[in-house]
Design brief:
Elements: E1 7-12, H1 14-31, E2 38-43, H2 47-54, E3 62-68, E4 83-85, E5 95-103, H3 107-117, E6 123-131, E7 144-148, E8 154-155, E9 171-174
Parallel strand pairs: 2-3, 2-5, 5-6, 6-7
Antiparallel strand pairs: 1-9, 3-4, 8-9
The structure holds inosinic acid (IMP) and magnesium ion (MG).
């Protein structure tokens, strides 16, 4: 079975993603130069982006992961977030950079950034690979954005539909019939 045949079209190919991730890494390296940095990936969708991004950040950093409940098999938000895995380390007095696959309604990142901010960190910033601003309902914006996309269901490069397609190396829009 060819996963690529389930795509309606490709949004960003491997090279386009790599170039953009390198640019984000440079911007983050400049912003945090000489400072402490804890990069926090949101499982599981951010893992592919996270792995590439940290290798484009040219300074010492530490990494950790958190997990929240996802859509499950549905393709639209429930507005409900559940903490599944917390950080292993304390964020007190640390610069936290939350790394997420996509900022959609904003429910997830609003919830997570509020929790992080309640723990007396030095700072909390957000880096998201994709941003769908037209879908936003929560009061939250990202500090670093890979690509702004229209309201379509994206898969690949870590993003899933019902846990599939995360290993596609490009980002594409799924054919409607795949989730209807
Ligand atoms: P939010 O809480 O509505 O901002 O949704 C964030 C989460 O929804 C992301 O971490 C994704 O898991 C999922 N999500 C939202 N839009 C998409 C999409 O287009 N493709 C895949 N997952 C998505
Ligand atoms: Mg996710």
């Amino acid at each position: 079975m060819n996963m690529r045949e389930d795509l309606d079209h490709i949004l960003y190919d491997e090279q386009t993603i790599a170039d953009r991730v390198a640019a984000l890494g440079r911007a983050i390296s400049q912003a945090y130069a000489g400072q402490d940095l804890l990069v926090v990936g949101v499982l599981k969708g951010a893992t592919v982006f996270f792995a590439d991004l940290i290798r484009q950040i040219d300074m010492p950093l530490e990494m950790d992961f958190i997990a929240v409940s996802s859509y499950g098999r549905r393709s639209s938000t429930t507005g409900e977030v559940r903490f599944i895995k917390d950080l292993d380390v304390s964020v007190e007095n640390r610069n936290v950079l939350l790394v997420e696959d996509i900022l959609d309604t904003g429910t997830t990142l609003k919830y997570l950034s509020d929790i992080m901010r309640s723990r007396q960190p030095a700072s909390v910033k957000i880096c998201t690979l994709l941003d769908k601003p037209t879908r936003r309902t929560a009061d939250i914006e990202a500090d670093y954005v890979g690509f702004v996309i229209p309201d379509a269901f994206a898969v690949g490069y870590g993003l899933d539909y019902a846990e599939k397609y995360r290993n596609l190396p490009m980002i594409g829009v799924l054919k409607k019939e795949m989730y209807q």
